[in-house]
Design a protein that fits this description.
- 32% of the residues lie in helices and 39% in strands.
- It is of the alpha+beta class.
- The chain has 2 domains: 1-36; 39-173, SH3 type barrels (Roll).
- The relative contact order is 0.14.
- This is Fis family transcriptional regulator.
């Protein structure tokens, strides 16, 4: 009887050790999976949610996340207004889902910031371009690889501006 109890106890310890190893492996795999999640993939899973995007200082964009791609987020700030925010300009985002959407397909991966800006240029939409401490109002005339040309309608009398993508915080319509 003592031998049987001893063997049963040893077997229970082995099972408990295996369970602990499996739990540790699962936890490590979960941490590794979380480490591969991008802001853009969480944003794609959050389309339709109310979000707040901190662009710097007290500069915040709030509204419904309408669309998201690897390089940009589109937020409806009112029924008639939209803000296109480069993901690189988003310092912090509140309101995102905890989980991530599956990776983007080849078409979605190709929809960069330039593609979205070219659509605004094609439609001749008047936009407000937010850069750092400056806002410019005008129409996007051309979109290059790393900049856009904006015809100034804001009354500065300076003609067109070449605005580097690196300086964009948001492009607003409406």
């Amino acid at each position: 009887m003592r031998w049987e109890a001893l063997f049963a106890d040893m077997e229970a310890q082995l099972v408990a050790g295996r369970v602990a190893d499996v739990r540790a492996d699962v936890a490590e795999l979960a941490r590794a999976e979380r480490a591969s999640v991008t802001l853009a993939s969480r944003a794609r899973a959050s389309v339709g949610r109310q979000v707040r995007i901190l662009l710097g200082g007290t500069d915040v964009i709030e509204g419904e996340l309408v669309d998201a791609a690897p390089q940009w987020l589109l937020v409806a700030t009112s029924p008639a207004r939209r803000a296109l925010v480069p993901t690189g300009s988003a310092i912090a985002v509140a309101g995102l889902e905890d989980h991530a959407a599956p990776g983007p397909g080849p078409v979605e991966r190709g929809l960069g910031l330039g593609h979205a800006l070219r659509a605004l240029a094609r439609d001749r939409v008047v936009v407000r371009v937010r850069t750092g401490d400056t806002d410019l109002t005008g129409r996007i005339e051309r979109v290059g690889a790393d900049h856009l040309d904006l015809t100034d309608l804001g009354g500065t009398g300076r003609g067109a501006w070449a605005v580097a993508f690196a300086g964009l915080r948001a492009v607003q319509t409406g």
